[in-house]
Predict the structure.
Amino acid sequence: MHVKPEPESRAYASATISDVPSRAKDTHTPNRVVRVDDDLWRDYGDACTDAGTDRSEDLRAHMKRRVRDWRAGRWPRPQTGDDTRA
């Protein structure tokens, strides 16, 4: 004779997960995907920390400068041939 197993108790975490605030939702800025080598990403994080900032703040500041210069007609700059400084 087969014994019917006890029903498994299940916990659903959907309510818990939805209660966690999302920074992206709070600031209305979507996440972006960027491909970067692991070594460069690690060193960039260290450089940003030493400068008192983080990667996101530094990337946004760079992007704002680039767009400001582009809008002012100062971009693109002439190529110097040394674009691989990293």
User: Anything to note?
Assistant: Residues 40 and 86 are 8 Å apart (CA to CA).
